[in-house]
Structure formats: C-alpha cells, structure tokens
Amino acid sequence: MPSTTRLQATSAVAGETARPRVFYVSYDGVEEPLGRSQVLGYLKGLAGAYDITLISFERSVATPRALGRELAEAGIVWHPLRYHRRPAVASTTWDVLAGRRALIRAARSGRPAIVHARSDVPALMALWARRATGGEFLFDIRGFWADERVDGDLWRPGGVLYRLAKRYERSFFAEADAIVTLTHASVPHLRAWTGGRPLPIEVIPTCVDIERFSGRPERPGGPHVVWSGSVGTWYRFDLAPRLAAALSLPLTVITRQAAQARRLLDGHRASVRSAAPDRVPAELFAGDIGLCLIRSSFSKVASAPTRFAEYLAAGMPVVVTRGVGDLEAIVEARGVGVVLQGDDEESITAAAARVRALAGDPDLPGRCVRLARERFDLETGTARYSDLYRRLLDVANGT
C-alpha cells in the first residue's frame, strides 16, 4: 500500500480555529462500489466541516494514484490498509490488529474528537485502540452483523464465532456514545441491547446521489423487470425469473456476478451483464420494475439495501420481500411498489397482478423519485451525520 495521502482542506488557513478531528474506520475499501457510495459519498460532504482521517481496507495490492489524489483534493487524510481474506478467522484478526495500529499511529499527531466505526470489525479496532485515541465513540452498525453471518449460513448458530462476536457486540453497545442504524425497525432491539441507556440512536438509511439516477427516460421498447446487484447469500434471485414470467416482461440482470447469475438462472431467459458503478444509473429506466428480494430473517430487520434507493431515484417501482428493514412499511405506505407475501405460485401471481395495477398510475415514476429525495438523498444523509457529530461534540464539551 502507498504511504498516507494528506492534504489540508482549503478552508483550514493559518489562524483559523481547528476543526474537530474525526477518525473514520471502514472495513469496506473505498475502491469498491459500496465504499465509494456509502463511505466516500458521505465523507466528501463531511470534510468541509471536520478534519477527516479515513482508515479503510483495500483488496488491491496497489491503490490507484487517482483515488489517492481524489481523497487528498477532498481534504481527507487516508490510511489505506490491505484487506486479508484467508485464512478466515486469522486474516480478520490480523486486520483488526493492523487497524488498531493505524488508529494509534494516527492519534500521535492529534487525538480525535470522534471515532466513527462502520460496523463490527472496525468497532473492535476502535475499542482496542481507545486508550490511545480517546474521543466519542460512534458505532455505525450497518446491520446485525453477527446474526447476518448465521442467517447467511456463513457461521454455525450458537457456535464459537457467533458467541464471541456477540460478546464483543455487547462491549460496543456498552462503550458507544451514539449509534447509527439503517432502519426504524431495528431501534427497539438496539434499545434493549443497550440496556435502556439514554444514548442517541440515529436512523440514517443507505443514501444515494439522487441526481445521478433521477431524470431517467422510459426504456425504449417497453418495461423490463430488473435485478441490480448481488445474487448470492441472502438474496432470493431464484424468484426473479418467476416474477418476470408472471408479468410477461423481459428480465434484465445487472451484476458483477454475471457468471454466477447465469448459472442460477438455470436456462431461464434473461439479459445478464456487468456494469461499472458509474454506469449503473444509465442501466436503469423509469417505469421498469425493480426487484429487491431478500431472505426474510431476524438479521434483515436492520438492513436497508442500496438498490432500493437507486430504483426509486430512477423512477422505478419496487417489488420487495417481507421482513427486510423498513421496506415493507415504506412500499405499502407510499404506494411505490408491491410486497411479495411468499414464494409460492399464488403469491407470485398476486404480486404480478398488483404490479400491473400499480404500473397503470401515470404519477408512479414521479412519486418514486419524490420519495427518494425525501428519504434517501445523500446530501440529507450527510447533513444528519454532521448534526450527530455536533451533538456528540456538544455533550463532550458540556454544552
């Protein structure tokens, strides 16, 4: 990995009052699509008011220089670390120790006012480095991490890894000065897990740059059923061709896992292709039917899929499965899609009929975009993070 990239923000001129320092730790690399949209998207906006130091874990051996320049120009101090995938447990332990060391080194040039840990693995790094860093601890949970790994058949229920992760999770909740979660549905569980402590719990769903997706035209040749994003683990990709067939519409699949998607389609007709992150908005068309089909489980109460916001921003109604975060409540209350009640043929047929009826509403694309601007706009999400930072600093300063 290259050495730390650093550039002071242009507003930090001589004599100006020092801005609050924030250490942001992400186990997702900012080279990856998720890291770009859900880490850099926020940090670029926050860097105008806060002195941001980003510690991220990158999958590439050599980080592109252009990305280093991009962060430097945004005024973000970047410590890219190498992400290790195997062996499973040992590699994560190695990364946690590397993250802890990076936090301690960064604190030598000035302790942070806030340490913002994005999910459980970064939270463990922050916890183990807290004596050196100090600062208010913001635990940004991004979902029920340990439970997701069990529900995704990655860990054994009640196994050693799950029990250890839940033990550390209790420590994160005990130490947290504030929590960010993606869904309102998860808040009662978090209140119980924090023992009723009166700490702030802020709901900030996954947000997108609405302007990149809005204003999309209708697809030439008529609507398609569209699957955008991953196809494995928690996803009910098997339902996509069945819904497309029930609607008598073509199926388009946009995924980085194109080969896996073709295998899973098992002969069903579909257009399958990959698209670079900056090309995804151009692949979506107003009036198409977006699919956001995820296995219902306890952990998914805390999930807010990014694709849901992207579909809405493009003017697309969405078909969702039950029990996934706030999606069911949003879709039913705002008339922007349909909830698939089950995976049997009767449920598929009923959902298709409701989609046809909904698609006949000429205001539907505009309603989807308006909801996206209201609930999932990146600027709004960034402002809510900034407001939470200010509240934490006010408490720390006794004001």
Describe this structure in words.
The protein is of the alpha/beta class and 399 residues long. It folds into 2 domains: 21-205 and 377-396, Glycogen Phosphorylase B (Rossmann fold); 210-375, Glycogen Phosphorylase B (Rossmann fold, 3-Layer(aba) Sandwich), CATH 3.40.50.2000. Helix content is 43%, strand content 15%. The protein has helices spanning 33-46, 65-73, 88-107, 120-128, 130-133, 145-151, 160-175, 187-193, 210-213, 239-247, 258-265, 280-283, 306-313, 327-334, 345-359, 364-375, 378-396, and strands spanning 21-26, 51-58, 77-82, 114-118, 136-140, 178-181, 201-203, 225-228, 251-254, 271-273, 289-292, 318-321, 337-340. Strands 3-2-1-4-5-6-7 form a 7-stranded parallel sheet, sandwiched between helices. Helix 3 crosses helix 4, helix 10 crosses helix 15 (345-359) and helix 13 (306-313) packs across helix 16. The longest helix has 20 residues, at 88-107. The chain is globular and about 60 Å long. The two termini are 41 Å apart.
Helix/strand-derived class? alpha/beta
- Biggest β-sheet strands, sense, barrel: 7 strands, parallel
Q: What's the overall geometry?
A: globular
Overall mean pLDDT stands at 93
Spatial strand sequence of the major β-sheet? 3-2-1-4-5-6-7
Assembly of the depicted chains: single chain
The proportion of strand residues reads 15-25%
CATH first level of the largest domain = Alpha Beta
Q: What's the gyration radius in Å?
A: 22 Å
* CATH fold annotation of the largest domain: Rossmann fold
Which superfamily, in CATH terms, is the homologous superfamily of the largest domain? Answer: Glycogen Phosphorylase B
Query: Total helix count?
Result: 17
The helical percent reads 40-55%
Spatial separation of the terminal alpha carbons: 41 Å
Query: Which regions contain 5 or more consecutive residues with pLDDT less than 50?
Result: 2-16
- How many strand elements? 13
Q: Write down the domain tally.
A: 2
